[in-house]
Amino acid sequence: xxxxxxxxxxxxxxxxxxxxxxxxxSTGSVVGEKEGKGPLANYFDLILEEDMFxxxxxxxxxxxxxxxxxxLAAKKSGKKPEDIDVMLCGDLLxxxxxxxxxARDLQIPFLGLYGACSAMCESLLIASTLIDGGYxxxxxAAASSHYCTAERQFRxxxxxGNQRPPAAQWTxxxxxxxxxxxxxxxxxxxxxxxxxxxxxxxxxxxxxxxxHQMGAAMAPAAVDTLCTHFxxxxxxxxxYDAILTGDMGFIGKQIxxxxxxxxxYDITPVYDDCGVLMYFKEKQDVHSGGSGCGCSASVFxxxxxxxxxxxxxxxxxxxxxxxxxTTQSSQQGESIPGIAHAVSMEVM
Amino acid sequence: xxxxxxxxxxxxxxxxxxxxxxxxxSTGSVVGEKEGKGPLANYFDLILEEDMFxxxxxxxxxxxxxxxxxxLAAKKSGKKPEDIDVMLCGDLLxxxxxxxxxARDLQIPFLGLYGACSAMCESLLIASTLIDGGYxxxxxAAASSHYCTAERQFRxxxxxGNQRPPAAQWTxxxxxxxxxxxxxxxxxxxxxxxxxxxxxxxxxxxxxxxxHQMGAAMAPAAVDTLCTHFxxxxxxxxxYDAILTGDMGFIGKQIxxxxxxxxxYDITPVYDDCGVLMYFKEKQDVHSGGSGCGCSASVFxxxxxxxxxxxxxxxxxxxxxxxxxTTQSSQQGESIPGIAHAVSMEVM
Lengths: 348, 348
What we know:
alpha/beta; homodimer; 23% strand; disordered N terminus; two-stranded parallel sheet
């Protein structure tokens, strides 16, 4: 019993260290029509011509998008679904409809995760423990969201054409998937994006009840996780080339900057938000920016991973942020609980 | 890099071995009024006098039940929430409403899981990898369901009083929580329930579209995971004192027995189902038995764990089974995908 060395893997209550440095060997990203007209268009593998993606329902389109992102990621690593040990993924739909049906089609052992828009980092975090802990040799970490499935589930039927307040964010139609593998140093032939550390989030609730103020609702969780990550790893903002939150949007991004400053950290030189990066703010009429599980998933799997492989970024923290409310909790007078999980990566 | 020994942790694509033998140090179980009149009544820690549990909504009652089960489990291990490194849990509600709000109240780092009624084993499985892999010292693995929250979300408003067909199962009002800890052999003072191995499930779909035939829908997944567990671990049914499925119910249990026989395994001497054990079939009018995340969670945390600690059972496989459909997938003509995760435990 206990005949193994695991003393190096725990940097604090919430923070894991991965001494084996699991590698993200490839990623896949699929985005909708609107996202394909945004500033990151050139970074995505596939841009849909129309958001139904040839399916009869939006939900089936989202599932197909997720599956395509996974198959793209797998193909780039020379893998078929049967070569992958485990699929970890999350989406926003009730009962994880997109992930569940994708898992049925691909027949990869499946661990379904729900963390709202924090799904991409929750899946990367658990994938890293499974790979680094020696439980799996390869994992798929993924997440998806679709504007039309999210709007009708969480807000109003699209046909209403109801107005959105300025603080509202636009649920991104996108999916991102990453293949995480055991680091076989001997096979290394070029730069590798390695996962070094991860911090699990606690649920923080600022008492906000307005579901059009997601950035404000999630900011305390983002700040809590990021400060914990810095403290547990003994690092500071300028140790990183980029720190990215999932989908704080324009308003939430500013709140995160302000709250981090109060905690003694100036993150402005390296900080940005995937929901801010996704769209042209004025031209695309997205108010406070993008949101949704697919936001940080596709921005990471599309842009950030490429920037790391191309030498533009070396050390990066990706921190997906989730708002854990339901329509029913809001109807029952509850405020919006937020969560954020952080993963730090390094080109090695 | 790779300066650790992990070669012993992988018994196959789907099956993990836990050489450090993480220990379930305590459990907590809370059940509703009806469950408290069933054959297992004496095994539960707390039986509600009424299923609203003093709250204003069923959803809040479910959340409170889950929290109570967790606090009971923690207390028996001499722990406060702040002593626990991570909380892994799942429920049936949209966006994991019960778990999310419990995680907010307890302030334990939270990884939300969705696997429908397979939640208890999904959480025990991931908890075991985190403990055995050295990422956490203590974890809470838990799941809950509530008849009234599930009925109104998945089926009909209770006020309809609509009839249930004979194959229908009764969603259990219950929560179960287990504390999983690192095995500190030197501190051992008596029998310990250790987690030895676990098998992740694949999604299997038998093409069943009738949501009142959950047992039939989940049986192929249960059989797939159980056969894989036997093959990967080199064990057979009579190596165990008990094999328990989550919530196949009376009909599903018989299908599992038949399908396992076709695969060459006679499991009848040791096999039972938590949904079958929970109620008096005729007297309590539950048709095909119990279901819901809370079913295997409370039966394990209530009865099975006690039977193991009391020397009645030594080697046990718990396999929670989940049906991954949504109301929307059913409306869109999809069949019901099933999944099952298995955890094998041993008194050491």
